[in-house]
Amino acid sequence: MAVQAQAASCDLADGHPGRVVAITDGDTLELDDGRVVRLVALQAPKLPLGRPGFRAWPLGEESRELLGRLTLDRTLRLAYGGVRTDRYDRDLAHLFDRDGRWIQQEMIRAGMARFYSFPDNRACAAELLAAEREARSRRLGIWRHPFYYIRQHDDLRNDIGSFQIVEGRVLQTADVRGRVYLNFGADYRTDFTVSLSPRVANMFRKLSIDPLAYQDREIRVRGWIKKRNGALIEVTHPEQIELMDQEPASSQ
């Protein structure tokens, strides 16, 4: 099977609308009926929000301000493409205003958030990844700041424990008792690796994506970087990986 660019379809189910009364940060807001909404499919720069010792990420306030300009005191339509609430009882929704503007797309297109998906919330990935590439190519918002620059696979020593987007060529792939490894260097004990559990590897194959076929391909992978031998990203769903040779070159 060949590697293909696949993403879950943008098939959303309508929910109850609500008027926005407060903005928490660039990806969270409150509605007049008491619901708290976490804008699914994006990650805005984080703010301390009362957490001791937490340092605000660059452009966190600017991101919150933009979300306020787009939504505050407006009635929005909520739509769902996966699990509807998280462990904090927040709604995990896509938001649309009365003119049909898609708030997630507006935030990402302005460079005030990154695409950020979950295995149980994968809808609309292709559209939002395209918006992110557009913002990145124009160096808008966060893409002007080194904190958010795309990392290269051979320079991740300072990024353990953080969410990053990493680019590089896969040197070798391996299937070890069903777990697939994408190795970006000659020594897996020190170099960057992407890991797919047997269940996740099968998820790829059901979409006609053979993860072993990533060998010798330039890819972009996003996720939380762990220290396991070298740096590692555990991929949990196909939308975390993009094939770079199937899109226009981006700059930053």
Task: Give the overall shape.
Answer: globular
What is the string of SSEs from the N terminus onward? EEEEEHEEHEHEEEEEHEEE
Extended strand count: 16
- Helix % is 10-25%
Could you list the spans in which at least 5 consecutive residues all have pLDDT below 50?
Answer: 1-7
Question: Could you explain how this protein is built, in words?
Answer:
The strands form three sheets. Strands 9, 10, 11, 12, 13, 14, 15 and 16 form an eight-stranded mixed β-sheet that branches. This protein has a five-stranded mixed beta barrel with strand order 2-3-4-7-6. The longest helix is centred in the middle third of the chain and has 13 residues, at 125-137. It has 252 residues and is α+β, with helices and mostly antiparallel strands. The chain has four helices and 16 strands.
